[in-house]
Amino acid sequence: MQHANSIPQRRQEPTSGLTLCLPTTTGYAFVSMADISYFEAAANYSWLYTSKNSGRVLIVQSLCQLEGTFNDSPFCRIHRSFMVNLSHITQMEYDKTRLHLFTGVTLPLGRSYQQHFFQKITRGR
To answer: Hey, is 15 helix, strand or coil?
Structure first.
């Protein structure tokens, strides 16, 4: 029996790379940083989407809070509602308004986020 104040137990084999422990509405999610494709804003929470078929997980942190946490990482805020893992991007549309991920998802690239995005990808993620 697990008590409310005990450390959450990992139920899956660890994946390669850094594994994050993120607070959810039901406890904690252990997710490999490399598996995270993007985050989507949901008011004061954020949806986390992975490259695996695990669907989405509601994280009890705003996108702004997550952005501060992932400041020196391969993640970049690309829109007021999205933060993406740069290593998951496969294509950018010619007009620089949409990014395509290898999962088949297309995300918008907001005009006010373009300069930061281009700076981050040109300095090696």
So the answer is: coil
Q: Is residue 5 part of a domain?
A: no
Domain with residue 62: its CATH number is 2.40.50.1020
Within a domain: residue 1?
no
- Residue 8 has a pLDDT of 39
Instruction: Please choose, from the candidates 108, 111, 121, the residue with its C-alpha nearest in 3D space to the C-alpha of residue 41.
Output: 108
Number of domains forming the structure of the chain: 1
Q: Which pLDDT belongs to residue 2?
A: 43
CA 90 to chain centre: 16
pTM: 0.82
Q: Which long-range contacts (CB under 8 A, 24 or more apart) does 114-121 make?
A: 116/76, 116/77, 117/76, 117/78, 120/76, 120/86, 121/76, 121/86
In a domain, 12, yes or no: no
Query: Using one digit for the tens of pLDDT, what is the confidence trace for 47-83?
Result: 999 988 677 999 999 999 998 888 778 899 999 999 9
